[in-house]
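Chain X:
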Amino acid sequence: MSNPVLYLLTFALYAVLAILFWRAQSAGSAEQKNRGALGFAVIVPLLLHGWLLYDTLFIWGTLNLGLAYALSLILWLTVLVYWLARRFYPIASLLTLMLPLAAIAAALPALFPSPRMLMQSPSGLFDTHVLMALLAYSLFTIAALHAGLIALVEKRLHHARMPEVLKSLPPLMTMETLLFRVIGTGFLILTVTVVSGFLFSDQIFGHPLQFTHKVLFGMLSWVVFGVLLLGHHFYGWRGHTAVRWTLSGFVFLFLAYLGTQFVLEVILHR
């Protein structure tokens, strides 16, 4: 089966599941179905999406992290985390929101096939470092989504009517608990990524650490999330404070790689 057909099939499966989840959401049965056959079925497009990523991320032994491929990988990891967590947390409504994005992300490499090969010698350390950074991206993408939804729900609580998708979200306290668990895990992975970059730069990148904009924004993001976790632990930061710090940290992390890649590939065509 050719790759274009696989891309189309993956997109179609995500899209169909997104429609089924939205219908279940409207009927108030999304959580039950997410823990049942419908939720389990998400593994099919996830596996296809994973195979497509595996087929395109490593070309001639070199890591390919063009913007479309990186976004596709981040959304794949995001949906994978939600799928794995579906039996432990009431997150059907969150998965409902992510499936349409996953459908688009899965198709991006086919629509914009512009590989960007990282000019490094083949190295397991380098690949591990980059993939861990992308896993941190995925977790902080989830955190940003949670923070945005928390802000939206808090705002809509003062209105007479609330959109159906917001009615089915987990309670705010559950959302905040999930938010800080995701941030804590993402911060741990980001810390390992940052520390390994500082300590083993020669082995990972083939040269001493260079203080670039990526390092600057990555460090700013690490500091913001670290302060947020300390503030939550010692001073009970939550609500609007947690939302603002989470979104600020995510913006810095976005600028560290994806924002730069967008400027280079889309605006400057490099």
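Chain Y:
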Amino acid sequence: MIIEDMTMPEFVAGLEKTRTVYIPIGSTEEHGPHLPLSTDTLQAVSVGRRLAERRCIFVAPAIPYGVCRSTCCHPGTLSITTQTLKALVRDVVVSLYRHGLRNFILLTGHAGGTHSAALIDAGEELLERFNDLKIAVLTEYQLAAEEGRGLIETEGDTHAGEIETSRMLHSHPHLVRGDAAREFPRFPKGILVRDKRKFWQGGVWGDPGKASAEKGLRIEELVVSALDRFVDHLESWVE
């Protein structure tokens, strides 16, 4: 049940079937010279829509902004603060809670450490506020890497490389502009730098040359299946 496409009566009827909602969280962030800035958001949305084809679940409108520290100097990246992300997520969850939802899956297509930590912080605060709320924070990339580990050839592939390029070649091939070179950033260990592009020029972390639409399809299927199982686990979770 795609919330943004539903009418008010359809939303009410949906509450009779499930109290679980999937909230896709992405980013507007560089993904090399070949992938769109919306890559993280598109992946999270695609997985949610595929999940809704398998089971009865609400899918909320995507949040297309994230905390993007490593890529903040790359053209096109729009980064928000951790405080803004936490406040936005809290407000969305509280609004959905007031309308009757009780089980929340926050799945982020952007895997930045600070970004993910902000989502976990928001979730912890919501747990303290509502006694009957269940909430989970998952990283779409981690699911893809774990579920597709037998398919992925590039060690350490994380951003705009084999995994994400394969995903986009499958789900949004018209948005893939050519290819990109294999690249890994060279950030100095432990030292914070102002000009991040100096150490990560192309914005790729992995090997896009190993990507294929066939891999993307298989990885997406594995991720959706893993999420389907996870929803069962969350809905039956008792502390």
